[in-house]
Amino acid sequence: WWQGAVAHLEAALAPLALGQDLEGLPAAELLHWGVEAMPRLRGRCSDLDARVATGGREAAQASFDCITGIQRLSALLCRYYPFRSRCDGQPSSEALLRTLHQFQNTISNASIARAMASGGQPRPWEVPPGLPRPVFIVGMMRSGSTLLEEMLSQHSQIQGLGEVTVLHGMVEQLASTAGLNSADIATILPGIMPLLPDLRAAYLSAVGATEPRKALYFTDKHNHNFVHLWLVALLFGDNARVIHCVRDPRDVGLSIYRQAFVSEFTRSLRSIGQVAKAERDLMAHWERELPGLPILHVSYEELVTRPEGELRRVTDFLGVAYDSTMLSFWKDPSAGSRSDNPSADQVRKPLYNTSIGRWQLYEEQLADLIAELPAGAGASASSQAPPPLSSAAVDATSRTPRDAAESGWKR
After folding, report:
1. Is 30 buried (19+), middle (13-18) or exposed (0-12) by CB count in 10 A?
2. How big is the chain by its Cα radius of gyration, in Å?
3. What is the pLDDT of residues 218-271, one digit of tens each?
4. Nearest CA to 309 among 295, 296, 298?
């Protein structure tokens, strides 16, 4: 039913101008039907996906066709008002990749040193007594970041804040004030240096971390913060902690594609593969160029198969005692309340590992994704620093201290 329905929608809307306000037109009713049909279509796709393990190639193709139907419907909803507003502000795939490559090419230890020489040396942040320190949980979406934050939030010394957008907003505003795209922020680094104390105070105020509290740390789980670790390093230095969630990029790609997020890059397997590669390369770049910023890599595969061992690595990294209550995260009545994404429902359930290696059931359908990843990319899913997904190997090991894209369509 859904294939014919989506095709009918596409044909009916084809003559209309992109972005046209459809309120009051017959086509608007079709789009409202599309929103109402999305949960039913997702349920059908889930049923088909459950049959893939035993159904072979035909079952895999049927399931994948259903997923593609969701993508087509989501793309339609993004093109026309009143639904287009849900997609406004999302960068194109090309713009996102340009940003990731631009940061890697322009912000380095040397460029930061030059900015300090001309713009002023920022004073290191001295944590006031009783104030918690920030832990930035970053990585590709669907890499286990929501799960990890829910686990850590059960610890008495760690407060989970969910997906905080403050850091990204700061960079956008700094760039906009200078008349720049955020990808070109490196050109104004000297001018940012004198602003760091005010930016730090504004961030801490926005997240409510200006008063003493029992917790030693708070978590900021906005996945996109991996782009702005240069600013984290400047604002907080080695008083911040960064946890990079890693997972087999083929499983990540499949999971992203199945969710039909509003971000444009998530509608193309090739684009998903390109962004996954760029994310891993940028993280390797930050490890080389931000030596004072403590970074720990946490494997999704290890977290769901040997959770105690992986969580002990995290608590050792943070300098707090291990707490077994982290393993019972799903019993917390507030589980999932910190995030508005598909993972929110999953963290209300006990741990499961059935998603590991699921990409193999769809290997034929994921050809465009896999083609963007170098051979052996899946071997990066480990507790050690994953290699960048490029031809040049980089020795990037987990560092110890010196002592979470809007979910899909919802009603």
Report:
1. middle
2. 22
3. 999 998 899 999 999 999 999 999 999 999 999 999 999 988 777 788 889 999
4. 298
